[in-house]
Write a structure and sequence with these properties.
Strand order of the largest sheet: 3-2-1-4-5-6-7
CATH architecture of the largest domain: 3-Layer(aba) Sandwich
Number of strands: 12
Strand content: 5-15%
CATH class of the largest domain: Alpha Beta
Number of helices: 16
Order of helices and strands: EHEHEHHHEHEHEEHEHEHEHEHEHHHH
CATH superfamily of the largest domain: Glycogen Phosphorylase B
Radius of gyration: 21 Å
Length: 403
């Protein structure tokens, strides 16, 4: 089959679809992964065919700027979603042109890229949901208070997601979305391990949890010699990977300084990714290595734990590596994953970025490196996840449903 995957968003939004494209191509399908032009290198270095759609910009940087200018988190979320749907509409012509040559479209449900185009052309499509708790379901045993609470949440979701999409659909000659929402009425894949999020028995059968998707690292990649020397020169380090959430140069300097001091006070070794502006202005001790982008599949198994923002991609990579986490959530689903990792026993209680202090961070870094129970639970869960093959299961379901 000729398959098009339009993915709008940050690197973390696109990365799972790189893995899916690899799996579909390996199964003999002709796959194009379409995204912002800035994603070209990420996609093509993984051996996947790339096509540009929409404006050329770094989605994560734009979203960070929006959050920085917003008066509070909710306003930032609403404005961020508005920006995302604006990018979706500006990408329409490019997506439509690609879909004209396709047999099947894969729709990421974050903002439903490809759904409108598939329906305009009457093409079959499947969807992919990275937030399983957002899948609607009906339980007759729910109490009245819970029905009211869920109804309020559904109303908010409608206002910031469904309503903007329906406005776009009206301009494109389509009816409002049906009860399926942003998902496919035939097959909605959820690339999460059932050991992390078991299937909800109240879901419709079209919603299928298949296990995480991990891209194969570029074969020509080699680790920097100084990084290998750092790893060989002491105990496994913690990985601090929060730079993508930086709100600008001032925030990068403040965050870099905060973490470098806390790492030293905690007496741990660490690799710090991101905050380039801030890190360059600091004199780093031998216990800290400043890194750029590195394949998590290679790096994380060599680390003792990870501090991250709670995004889907980094969360899944840390779980597969079998290392515990400290989540510093900033927006949206990051709070959910931070809480869920703690409930699973593989993460410390999350700390929202506005509540992060040097003393609290120092204590948390010590705990992340030293609490045996966390490391044991993370190791056991990691073994289960590594034994799964989410890509193979997803490809089989796609071929059974649409082949």
């Amino acid at each position: 089959m000729k398959i098009v995957i339009p993915a709008i968003g940050s690197r973390g939004d696109v990365q799972p679809f790189v893995a899916l494209a690899q799996g579909l191509a390996h199964a003999g399908h002709d796959v194009i992964l379409a995204s912002h032009p800035v994603m070209k290198a990420l996609v093509e270095t993984h051996g996947v065919t790339f096509a540009p759609i929409g404006p050329d910009f770094d989605f994560a940087q734009r979203m960070a700027a929006i959050r920085h200018q917003a008066r509070n988190t909710i306003i930032g979320l609403v404005q961020g979603m508005r920006f995302g749907f604006d990018m979706l509409e500006r990408s329409h012509d490019d997506i439509l042109a690609l879909c004209r040559k396709a047999d099947l479209v894969v729709v990421p449900t974050a903002i439903a890229a490809g759904k409108n185009e598939a329906e305009v052309l009457k093409l079959p499509y499947l969807s992919v949901t990275l937030m399983p708790w957002a899948i609607p379901w009906s339980d007759p045993q729910r109490s009245f208070s819970k029905r009211v609470a869920y109804g309020a949440i559904d109303g908010l979701v409608y206002l910031i997601t469904t309503l903007p999409l329906n406005r776009i659909r009206k301009r494109q000659g389509l009816a409002p979305v049906g009860r399926e929402g942003f998902t496919s009425p035939r097959l909605n894949l959820v690339p999460v391990s059932p050991a992390v999020y078991p299937p909800n028995p109240h879901w419709e059968p079209r919603h299928r949890i298949v296990g995480y998707w991990f891209a194969k690292a570029p074969s020509e990649w080699q680790p920097p010699a100084d990084l290998l020397a750092f790893l060989d020169n002491g105990a496994p380090p913690l990985l601090v990977s929060l730079g993508v959430m930086s709100l600008g140069d001032d925030d990068a300097r403040e965050s870099a300084s905060l973490f470098v001091e806390a790492i030293q006070q905690a007496g741990v070794r660490a690799i710090v990714q991101g905050w380039d502006v801030g890190m360059r202005q600091l004199t780093l001790p031998s216990s800290i290595y400043a890194a750029g982008a590195l394949p998590h599949s290679w790096l994380l198994p060599r680390c003792a734990g990870i501090v991250h923002h709670g995004g889907f991609g980094t969360t899944s990579a840390g779980l597969r590596a079998g290392i515990p986490a400290l989540v510093i959530p900033h927006i949206a689903d990051q709070f959910y994953w931070g809480q869920h990792l703690h409930e699973l026993g593989v993460g410390l209680p999350f700390i929202p970025r506005p509540r992060l202090t040097r003393e609290g961070l120092t204590a948390a870094l010590k705990e992340l490196a030293q609490i045996d129970k966390l490391h044991t639970a993370a190791s056991v869960l990691g073994e289960r996840i590594r034994a799964e093959n989410g890509i193979e299961k997803a490809v089989n379901l796609i071929e059974e449903t649409f082949g």
